[in-house]
Amino acid sequence: MKTCCVLIPYFNAGDSLLTSIASIDYNYCTPEVIVVDDGSKTIKAADILKKYNGPLKLILVELQDNKGIEHALNKGLELHGHAYKFIARLDCGDICKNNRLEKQIKFLEENPSYYLVGTWVDFINMEGNHLYTVQHPAEYRLIKKLMYINTTFTHPTVVFRSETLKSVGFYPTDAPAAEDYAYFFNIIKKHPASNIQESLIDCIIDPNGISTKKRKTQIRSRISVIVKNFNFNGYAIYGLIRSAMLLHTPRKFTVFLNMLLRPNQ
């Protein structure tokens, strides 16, 4: 079994795909990169990957039609996920830094009961300027509580064991635009998880990204995930109220609040 792959969904993203691939560290292991083109029509991943001349092996999966990120991720996992011990996520335009994969894989190797590890994350704008830093919790019991309020993992930062596919399954397809939130809930109900207390990813806030263009769909999906996993505690109740309020809050305003309230690194 190979050590690690990096799973990247793609949809008309252009050269930002190459930027992300170029940032992947390969000193600790040599990961393979699985790119799933989710039915691109204008800028196909195959044309972009022809420009790549780096050291990493690239595997391209092409979907005939645009199915959505959850279906693209599941197709990549279905075809190739079981060939690796660890599966890392990354999105087009996001940048790995500070030996990201080495630190996360070492964590999972040294903590065999843990199935998922994320990191802190720096959010940047389209020009590459730092906006704010999200410091996700490390302690498993706190993660399980805070997940009701907001996701305690940023999707492109996570690395998880391929054994998760047998234990938990694939990304849920009944939570459109919030497949990661639903999947993380499923994982932490069965297995310990953590976050490395260091920013190892720059995540770009794209005005054309899912969290912006499909914001209300995403929040409605989050509400359904909370209800599905609901238990009567203050975290779950507050999480429902908070999500309902976010339905009427523009993304630009929440980004502005994060810039004011969250620490800079």
UniProtKB/TrEMBL annotation:
<feature type="domain" description="Glycosyltransferase 2-like">
    <location>
        <begin position="5"/>
        <end position="164"/>
    </location>
</feature>
<dbReference type="InterPro" id="IPR029044">
    <property type="entry name" value="Nucleotide-diphossugar_trans"/>
</dbReference>
<dbReference type="Pfam" id="PF00535">
    <property type="entry name" value="Glycos_transf_2"/>
</dbReference>
<keyword id="KW-0997">Cell inner membrane</keyword>
<keyword id="KW-0808">Transferase</keyword>
<protein>
    <submittedName>
        <fullName>Glycosyltransferase</fullName>
    </submittedName>
</protein>
<keyword id="KW-1003">Cell membrane</keyword>
<dbReference type="InterPro" id="IPR001173">
    <property type="entry name" value="Glyco_trans_2-like"/>
</dbReference>
<dbReference type="GO" id="GO:0016758">
    <property type="term" value="F:hexosyltransferase activity"/>
</dbReference>
<keyword id="KW-0472">Membrane</keyword>
